[in-house]
Amino acid sequence: MPRAPHPSRKTFTRFASKQPFQFGLPNVSSGLTQTSDNSPIYFTRATSLLRRQVLAKADGVKIKSDNYRFQVLPRDGWGERDFSGKSVLFLIPDDALGDCVGMALFLRALKKRFGDIRIGVLNAGSASDIFVLVQGIEIFQLFISSAQLKRFDHVIDLSEMEGWRDIATMPVNPEEALCEAFGISPIPLEKRQLPTGARLKIGIVPMASSPLRTLPPKLVSEVTKMLTNRDCDITIVLNAYQGVMKDYKAALSDLGIRTGRNIRVIDGFKTIGDLVKFVGQQDYLVVADSGPAHISKLFQTPGIGLYSSADAKTLQGRHTNLRAWQSDFTGPHCSAPCGLAKLRATPDGKIGCMGSLGLPITALPDTPEKSDPELARALVTNKPVPCVARLETDIPAISDLISQDLAKA
């Protein structure tokens, strides 16, 4: 017997508007901007940017409630449903790029299993451009109207997936976990080879959202210098949305990396859609444990993924397009991969990880409440955490592996 629906984990804001409105995030392609449709009620996540920064100040908007919960299909019944001919709205837990790539790959598999299913995603946020790559799904970047909601037969809260509450401390592989939960097979993967007889396009994406996963500038510099001796065009992509980008760029410059010849250094892309397009166009990637490493799964772009605190086997899963290199740091309080996705804090406010602070995980109970810009700059430039610093000693071996890969072109 199918289980009866129950309330979603996350709360949503119910609001009404007397005036037409439209809204879209600045780092999402303009084609995904949402507009009102004269519905009496709209819904957005209570913690969304739309709720926090726009609705409270917008003329003609009335907040009805901040405690609305959708009625969703229980987790233990996902694999029992026949979704043929049904319309299903998926509530996206967060807009982390890697997680959303896994969800997008799962949705591809779901469409393959139930060819006539109709799919929508709500709360796609900054990752909305990822879901564009799943043909025929409806993307609700930040809100959905009551009229639109009525079109769906079922609502599924993906945050009910096991492990999602601990994802900040122990990464999971959403694609494989969700396919297993729904009892479906992942989509087959096509092998993408390096082109032969052509000038290669090589993308280097060294910055992640956390210093625990951002590549040392020295490693990027040495790999880039090695690549300049080859017939290729090198693009180093930074992240303009991160406060440490300018310092990281300066560190690369100090190490001799300059735009010119066959090297291009860009501060980042305006939209995630531009980043997705870039990853798909490259012939080979050198990436940190970051969103672009996961985006490469969508295109099976060849390359090498360099991992520090997170387990490469878990994150890459069945995808072998990237050769995985795992930091093998071992210290008195931790060994890589420890599983941390973000920095932690001691009760008295010291920020770092087990290796950088010389403390056991039990002494780091929380994630930091406040940012420390000076510490962040140091961690991504001249004082990386131990598992990241360990990658510097691996530079010759990493460079050799990249050379071996490119020799096949």
Automatic annotation (TrEMBL):
<dbReference type="InterPro" id="IPR051199">
    <property type="entry name" value="LPS_LOS_Heptosyltrfase"/>
</dbReference>
<dbReference type="InterPro" id="IPR002201">
    <property type="entry name" value="Glyco_trans_9"/>
</dbReference>
<protein>
    <submittedName>
        <fullName>Heptosyltransferase</fullName>
    </submittedName>
</protein>
<dbReference type="Pfam" id="PF01075">
    <property type="entry name" value="Glyco_transf_9"/>
</dbReference>
<dbReference type="GO" id="GO:0005829">
    <property type="term" value="C:cytosol"/>
</dbReference>
<dbReference type="GO" id="GO:0009244">
    <property type="term" value="P:lipopolysaccharide core region biosynthetic process"/>
</dbReference>
<dbReference type="GO" id="GO:0008713">
    <property type="term" value="F:ADP-heptose-lipopolysaccharide heptosyltransferase activity"/>
</dbReference>
<keyword id="KW-0808">Transferase</keyword>
<keyword id="KW-0328">Glycosyltransferase</keyword>
